[in-house]
Amino acid sequence: MGALPQLFAVALLLIHSNLAQASSTPSDCGGSQVCRKTEPYKTASLTPAERANDLLKRLTWEEKIGQMGGIRAAFRSINGSVAFNRTSFEQIRSTQNGQIGYGQQANWAMDLLPRMNELRAEQINGSRLHIPYITVADSVNGLWFSGGTVFPGTISMASSWNLPLYEQVIAASRDENLAMGINWVLSPEVDIIHDPRNGRNGEMYGEDTYLVGEFGTRYIKTMQEKDDNGFVKVATTIKHFVFGSGSGGVNRASMFGGINHILNDLAPPYRKAIREGQPLSLMASYSSIDGVPASINKYLLQDVLRGILGFKGLIMSDANAIQYLLTESKVARTRSDAAVKSLQAGLEHELKPDGLGLFVELRSLHSNKEIASLVDEAVRAMLQIKFATGMFDQPLPTIENMAATLRNPRHLLLNRNITRESIVLLKNDDAFLPLTKGLLSGSGKVAVIGPYADLINAGNYAPVDPADPRYGNSFLRSFENALGKENVLYAQGTSTVLPNYDHDAQAKDQAAISFAVDKAKQAGLAVVVLGSGYGNFMPEFFNNERTDTEGYSHADLGFPGAQQQLLDAILNTGVPTILVMSAGQTFVINQSTSRCKAILHSWLAGEYSGDSLVEILLGQVNPSGKLTVSIPDHNGAFPVAYDYLPSDDVGGFSTYTKYDWHWPQLTRKPAMPFGYGLSYTNFTISEVSVSTSGTGSNRTIDVSAKVTNRGKMGGKEVVQVYFRPQYSIIERPVMKLIRFSKVSVAVGSMEIVEFDRIALTELGFYVNGEWTVEEGNYTFWVGSSSRSSDLTPVNVVI
Ligand SMILES: *[C@@H]1O[C@H](CO)[C@@H](O)[C@H](O)[C@H]1NC(C)=O
Ligand SMILES: *[C@@H]1O[C@H](CO)[C@@H](O)[C@H](O)[C@H]1NC(C)=O
Ligand SMILES: *[C@@H]1O[C@H](CO)[C@@H](O)[C@H](O)[C@H]1NC(C)=O
Ligand SMILES: *[C@@H]1O[C@H](CO)[C@@H](O)[C@H](O)[C@H]1NC(C)=O
Ligand SMILES: *[C@@H]1O[C@H](CO)[C@@H](O)[C@H](O)[C@H]1NC(C)=O
Ligand SMILES: *[C@@H]1O[C@H](CO)[C@@H](O)[C@H](O)[C@H]1NC(C)=O
Ligand SMILES: *[C@@H]1O[C@H](CO)[C@@H](O)[C@H](O)[C@H]1NC(C)=O
Ligand SMILES: *[C@@H]1O[C@H](CO)[C@@H](O)[C@H](O)[C@H]1NC(C)=O
């Protein structure tokens, strides 16, 4: 139902509009003549802006306000079934009807699509001007709800440093969204990881603005690719403007920093994405910046975002953010005041997970000219997105296409490929890995230990019940499949559930640790899987027991609960031990942890996390992931990011205070630096060359290097280029990434990597809002990580 009638209707309308253009103008429509003129907004050949302008004129005030909100959660999940509450749905729909969202993650795609199509058809038929909804969803690991391919989380995919592969994954994710009629996603999140305590770091790409900008822009371009009819497939929402360094690593906490900090340290991914990808929408952050919540921060949203950065799309609130102006920040006196202040600052659409939003208060302010004009702008922006994505022209999605698209075999293979490349090998003493038959000797058994060994830990935006095999294999299940169940001894060791850690729980953990130690002693090898996270937004599965992800900030960068005790107890047995970390965060790596023979970080990997780890342990896959975030060696030893300012590194007076940990780079280097990751083979990067060509402002920089595989296994290396001006008028980082490329090199072979025509302007930065490029002596570094011993410097005068 739905699809065909609508298609025919579109075809008829097009014929009518052609006739109308040939034979009549609006003024011909009087008298006895039958007017066949089709309204311009129904004419697919006009631009989204032209159609939106026409439709806007036809809307009543209430219809306009209706477009500024929506019904984010149409369906709930009750005991494994889709539940729909008609009463509450109608209550919201009467005043908020711009977009619609599917609701809870636990529901399955095949149960949802027919029901959603009914609601979509009802809205088209039932609304006065037949204005369709647009369906909005989060899309971090692929589909927001169950039944799609569960890709790894954002920090995992970024750890692949493989942009072409990432694009293919996002194309698969886009097609799965599209098959469910989701034409608008609430990604990418281009916030910069500035604080290791922030529970949302796993949703972000990394600590470097260039890397984040590259991934974020690819996400936008791929999602917003146009279909054969010229419609944008899936509109994107770049977010959260601006965020990353909330006080204490707390999700909605305040931020500080002047305009140079915002534009140079936080905004570069927006600048790139706006210029190259043109995201159709943007989400303002929860944070107050310099005391002004982003939702009412006119300076940031207008002067900086629209003015300096040139953003032209729709600006939406974060979920409930307008309400928080009233209930938390106390910068509004009433619901109406909150709505008006955020509208005046630049918000054009309200995201509200449930219930009535605050923009509905605008219904009573019709006579206010300023409000009326701002509402027109907001509705025009919304309608343009609907026209651009073909909401008025495309048929509803079909069950057949959904069945052919979701979990398509190609998507699953892409998922395996990116998961393999997302895992980072951090330590591998004496080539302990890959495991050989010899290492599995002794009892011939392997002990698999730890609370994260038997679950899938994909992050809170992934629809996964971590213990349910329908969502994929845990590491334990994958290892049992590979080695035979009889060869794997399993012990959970401690609980995953760690806050409210009472005496009884501790006693239970001590018993569980002893049990795990016994298992390790019976085996020749222990693989210990520790982490944080566990869970998503499905309360029925997790009872809010997450120890990472949104709404959680880490008071301690060690493993939560008794996990370090468990690891130490296993290491004390002397049984060779491999540590696998599973989380969206980094954990302190110190002498305790370094006693492991090998360490891997698997981040928030998706449904193939277990399989990929096993392939890497057994040498069927050569690891090629690299860190996109530096790892501290002590709980308080951060900021730790590689691109600190030169003055940051002097700390106190190092000659007087030799025990000072202070700034991490000079006196206490990070445990693991940005860009770092090991392989089973041995690459050398040589013949580094940096040269300039062209004249004046057209000058470009060419960089090249040779990568040779001198080891015994084919593999992939990430060649990284960093730079720094020797002089600048404001303080600039000691080094900044400017290019990277992942290359595959066969055994005994070599590849030349070339970065051609890097524009001079890319070396610039903002000074009080003005883009500035300086001439002078620049150092470029080329190598395999941000660590100086992995880099070759070359100076050029520009
Ligand atoms: C709209 O309503 C008509 C008449 O009730 C019905 O025949 C048609 O199928 C409906 N269209 C959609 C898309 O539901
Ligand atoms: C869900 O299932 C449980 C256990 O069978 C039952 O007690 C509960 O009433 C059910 N809830 C609903 C809303 O059906
Ligand atoms: C449905 O929504 C209405 C209005 O919000 C509420 O009063 C009612 O309890 C809901 N019904 C169920 C079964 O949840
Ligand atoms: C996955 O990677 C393998 C090895 O590089 C490649 O041969 C294969 O084509 C890739 N699969 C997909 C679907 O891209
Ligand atoms: C290593 O760090 C963890 C987490 O902070 C801590 O529990 C442990 O005591 C540390 N070990 C050493 C030797 O510093
Ligand atoms: C890589 O090559 C270097 C230099 O020849 C050597 O010292 C090192 O052991 C090699 N590493 C591996 C993993 O083969
Ligand atoms: C830069 O290149 C453009 C296009 O090739 C050319 O029109 C312009 O004159 C050049 N400017 C300078 C300063 O060389
Ligand atoms: C640029 O700086 C490097 C490193 O300090 C120095 O060796 C080189 O002589 C400088 N080049 C010029 C032209 O000043």
Automatic annotation (TrEMBL):
Enzyme Commission designation: 3.2.1.21
Coiled-coil intervals, chain numbering: none
Keywords annotated in UniProt: Carbohydrate metabolism, Glycoprotein, Glycosidase, Hydrolase, Polysaccharide degradation, Signal
Catalytic reactions on record: Hydrolysis of terminal, non-reducing beta-D-glucosyl residues with release of beta-D-glucose
Annotated GO biological process: polysaccharide catabolic process
Ranges for domain Fibronectin type III-like: 717-786
Gene Ontology molecular-function annotations: beta-glucosidase activity
Signal sequence bounds: 1-22
Source domain of life: Eukaryota
Enzyme class, broadest EC rank: hydrolase
Pathway in which the depicted protein is active: Glycan metabolism; cellulose degradation
A Pfam family it matches: Fn3-like
Gene3D superfamilies the UniProt entry points to: Glycoside hydrolase family 3 C-terminal domain, Glycoside hydrolase, family 3, N-terminal domain, Immunoglobulins
Family: Belongs to the glycosyl hydrolase 3 family.
The name this protein goes by in its record: beta-glucosidase
